[in-house]
Specification:
By secondary structure, this protein is an alpha+beta fold. Helix content is 26%, strand content 31%. The protein folds into 3 domains: 87 residues, Leucine-rich repeat, LRR (right-handed beta-alpha superhelix) (Alpha-Beta Horseshoe); 115 residues, Sandwich (Immunoglobulin-like); 66 residues. It contains 2 helices and 14 strands; from the N terminus they run E-E-E-H-E-E-E-E-E-E-E-E-E-E-E-H. Helix 1 links the parallel strand 3 and strand 4.
């Protein structure tokens, strides 16, 4: 079609019945131009939006055989000139990452990303267990959405039209209640038509181990301290009994000494008495 811009004397262009799906918007019809496009299986998406404007201009007559749409099915057999701008849709298309199965530990934070392209800009929302967490509309520079432990964030990747949009779902302080499937849904809703696309993430949550690397050394220190405490008590206890045993032995020795002395004294008295008799 780029050749048409160089054909300044061209007045008639017949492209009917040529199995055309689309026409690129890189040429300008000259004045009093006659165009014939009927009987082509046109796919009426955003690439043909310009053609609807061109066909509606009176200086471009088309011989009353107005081209019609074949795709998408919602627009099949409808004349291109009868459609509205918002019905010429491309997408939505969601980039599919390689990793869509996530494993997290309780207490951690998970970030799920969803990159969407569509023309016009899409509505994007996240769901969990068939419930909407947060919905990002087509407006630019939307503030973050905070719902409990969820944060939904959106930004435009290219330009201000926000046809390329990236949304992230941030899950803070993960626990077992967050275990399940999360869906990023993108849709362009028009009268009589609803196109949507989705991306799924599976999040599996595991409980925190009792002995983590940080607490391992604390447990070791506590165990050693407990053992030291027991040994200290044992040492004091044994020392106490040893000391008591020594004291008791001294008392026993003294008692034995005194008993012997008394016995000796009694014996000597008995001897002395016998001798005096």
């Amino acid at each position: 079609m780029t050749l048409i811009n160089h054909l300044h004397s061209l007045k008639h262009l017949y492209l009917h019945s040529n199995f055309l799906r689309t026409l690129s918007n890189n040429f300008t019809f000259p004045n009093n131009f006659h165009l014939k496009l009927a009987s082509n299986p046109f796919e009426c998406d955003c690439r043909l939006r310009w053609l609807r404007h061109a066909l509606n201009r009176l200086e471009y007559p088309i011989y009353h055989d107005e081209p019609q749409c074949e795709l998408p099915k919602a627009l099949a057999d409808k004349k291109i000139v009868s459609l509205r701008d918002e019905q010429f849709v491309c997408g939505p298309i969601i980039s599919k990452p390689d990793l869509r199965y996530l494993l997290a530990t309780t207490g951690e934070t998970a970030t799920l990303r969803c990159d969407v392209y569509s023309d016009p800009a899409p509505d994007v929302w996240w769901t969990f267990q068939n419930k909407i967490i947060g919905k990002i509309l087509t407006a630019n520079n939307e503030p973050d959405i905070h719902i409990g432990s969820y944060t939904v964030r959106s930004n435009c990747l290219i330009g201000n039209s926000c046809l390329n949009k990236s949304t992230t779902l941030i899950i803070s302080n993960i626990n077992t209640e967050h275990n399940g499937t999360y869906n990023c849904v993108a849709a362009i809703r028009n009268q009589g038509r609803s196109d949507n696309e989705y991306l799924s993430y599976d999040l599996r949550v595991r409980r925190t181990s009792i002995l983590t690397m940080n607490s391992f050394f604390l447990w070791i220190f506590a165990i050693f301290f407990f053992i030291f405490f027991l040994l200290l008590i044992f040492y004091v206890y044994v020392g106490y009994f040893i000391a008591n045993d020594r004291t008791e032995n001294k008392h026993n020795k003294i008692k034995l000494f005194y008993s012997k002395m008394i016995s000796m004294v009694k014996t000597n008295k008995w001897i002395i008495t016998i001798r005096t008799m």
